[in-house]
Amino acid sequence: MNSKVKIARLSILSNSSLILMKIFVGIFTGSVSIISEAIHSTMDLVAAIIAFFSVKISDKPADEDHPYGHGKVENISGVLEALLIFGASVWIIVEAVKKIMHPEAVGSIGIGFIVMFISALVNYIVSKKIYKIAKQEDSIALEADALHLKADVYTSLGVGMGLLLIWITKLNFLDPVVAIIVAIFILKEAYELLKTAFEPLLDVKLSDAQINSIKAAIDKHSAVYCDFHDLRTRKSGRTKYIDLHLVFPENMTIKDAHDICDIIENDIEKSLKNTHAMIHLEACDKNCSYCKFTKKEKCK
Question: What is a GO molecular function of this protein (predicted)?
């Protein structure tokens, strides 16, 4: 079992435990903010399950029906997770508004505060572990899962502080108000996740920093080619795809040009993890329209 699957399984186990604890305490205390946290954790659990299966599928090698592999399964899972969070946030806001209109006393505040603190601590530890593996493996599904748990840390602390304020001020309406603040925070999280996961499905280019890294790898060999153009980049899951046109002097042999292309492709793939580069060879035309050498000495 690889590290991505192991860490996704850990997320499922931790979320399941926290959900049971929050639901029990939420019902026992009558706190809508704790119930909202239980719902948030339920969404985290669904997200963790989606992440678990998506990382297993995305690691499958390319086949006849999927010649570019299965990487975009991770992006699809990220989009689904974001939509689930949107739905949960709206439900929390609706329930909190009902509580504001018909306020109820919150009981056993001390227990609720302890549960929120434990939840924040557990999610902080697990999210750090998941985020580390997500960065190592460049996994959008695991990064989304880590983002969920990171948000849960802040929302749990927020609910805990809300319960503390209720205990100090005896103002029970603060409970649904805190729940609404939590929901708004989760909505922001969902938007960021949706943007991150959805863009690769539209074949958006890589970041400027990554493109500059690609250009630097190409420029290292500028002494042996005339120019390059039509650089295109995209990402599928964790795999980055790069293609470009490289212009060589007209008198260079195909073998020599191909060998240079192999070297440049290897350099690009070394500069960025999980990268597949492909170069199209072109000969400099008679007018040297692509040639950057003013004396055209390489084309003689």
Answer: cadmium ion transmembrane transporter activity
Range of the domain at 249: 208-299
3, two tokens:
């590290």
For the chain, how many helices (H) and strands (E)? 8, 3
pLDDT number for residue 182: 75
Secondary structure class of 229 (helix, strand, coil): strand
Tokens of 275: 């990268």
Quote the pLDDT of residue 264.
92
pTM of structure: 0.60
Residues, the chain: 300
Q: What is the DSSP string of 246-265?
A: EEE-TTS-HHHHHHHHHHHH
Burial class (CB in 10 A: 0-12, 13-18, 19+), 168: exposed
* Contact present, 145 and 51 (Cβ < 8 Å): yes
Identify the domain boundary among 201, 233, 251.
201
Three-state DSSP state, 296: coil
Distance (Å, rounded) from C-alpha 290 to C-alpha 274? Answer: 31
Same domain flag for 78 and 154: yes
Q: CB–CB of 38/23 below 8 Å?
A: yes
Scanning the structure block, which residue is given the tokens 């119930």? 35
168 shares a domain with 281: no
Written as six digits, the tokens of 29 are 């205390």
Q: Which of 43-47, 212-216, 221-225 has the lowest mean pLDDT?
A: 43-47
Residue 82 in tokens:
């974001």
212 and 197 fall within a common domain: no
Question: Tens of pLDDT along 183-195?
Answer: 787 788 778 878 8
Are 137 and 124 in contact, with CB atoms under 8 Å apart?
A: no
Our count of domains for the chain comes to 2
